[in-house]
Amino acid sequence: MKLKQYYLGNGNGRYFSENEYQKVITIIPDGTSQNYQVIGRITAQNAGETHTVYFNAALRSGESLPDLSWSTSYREEYNGSRYIDPQLWTKETTTAGFVIAFKTLSTIYGNITVDIDVVPRNDGLKSNVTINNAVSSEQSSVDTGYTANDMTKTIRQQAQNTTFEGSVTDKFGSEVVGGVYQLDDGLIQNPHSSYSRIFFPADDTLVETVGAVSTNYKIAPFNGELIKMQVKSIQDFTGKALTASLHIGTGTNNAYNSTPSVSVALNGQAAHSVYTFDFSSESGINFNEGNIFGFSLELSENWAGNETIHFTSVVKFDPYS
């Protein structure tokens, strides 16, 4: 079933106004387990601007009426403002039904055109589908008994800019994550035996310190967050604990705060083990552009003074924020 229709929005006034509703298709299932696929395009024209929505709705009557189930998605393109929100109205009381509709977001000095395909499971269900052919039939509210559900947006294209509302994955199913990653590594040897916490050197020309000093920090070029830290040592830390921490400094401070903004602890393991401190789900991992930051590693007792520790840190910066 194909629908080509336009709506003028002049049933009450000369044009579509903000927060008006337009019904397009009504589907009243007359039995259980009936499937309807509705695929379409809605275009709003306003002077020199257009807003086009491409939507897909999968509708089904339940194992017993008036139960219903559905899923919706849409992508949109516009060269100026957004003018419509596609909606699915549902009624799960007797008599159950679906309505494909749209809501207007502002005055539209033009018309709205609709091209839709309705695909029922079989031809016998076509009689349950009613198309609204009245070009001047906008309304001020949702039909009584129905609930208006905004369809789920997946992609927004505004002029040359495209935004993905969910995650993007590659052909292997891995999420593609935007941002700039900084990997830093180094070596700590013979930490001071009178202390349990050591602060990582800021670069290869410096050494670790036992306090938050003005030499051992990095400057954040963008807003960012700590993703993970890893350490590996020739020492056996079985029966002890290792705690990795992020330290942040703000404003005119010439050293970051010696109190961690976030820490992750792991139980000690045999010599040559790799410890992975995952900060991705922790709070306190974020810092702002211009902040200074650094890292520390704490042993549950004072260092022996003969340890050798390799470390790696991974920080993600967001240059788009």
Question: How many β-strand stretches?
Answer: 24
**Unreliable stretches:** none
Shape field: elongated
Question: Main β-sheet, in a few words?
Answer: 7 strands, mixed
Strand order of the largest sheet: 1-8-3-4-5-11-12
- Mean pLDDT score, rounded? 94
Our count of helices gives: 0
Count of individual domains: 2
Termini, distance in Å? Answer: 46 Å
Roughly what fraction of the amino acids lie in strands?
A: over 45%
Compressed to H and E, one letter per element, the order equals: EEEEEEEEEEEEEEEEEEEEEEEE
| Helical content band | under 10%
Radius of gyration: 30 Å
Structural class: mainly beta
Overview of this protein structure:
With 321 residues, this protein is mainly beta. The chain has two domains: 2-168, no CATH class; 180-318, Jelly Rolls, CATH 2.60.120. Strand 3 (35-46) and strand 4 form a beta hairpin. It contains no helices and 24 strands. The protein has strands at residues 2-7, 21-27, 35-46, 49-61, 68-78, 84-91, 97-104, 112-120, 129-131, 147-150, 153-158, 161-164, 168-169, 175-176, 180-189, 197-199, 218-219, 223-233, 241-249, 262-267, 274-278, 286-287, 292-299, 308-318. It has a seven-stranded mixed sheet, with no helix packed on it. Strands 9-2-7-6-10 form a five-stranded antiparallel sheet, with no helix packed on it. Strands 15, 18, 21, 22 and 24 form a five-stranded antiparallel sheet that branches.
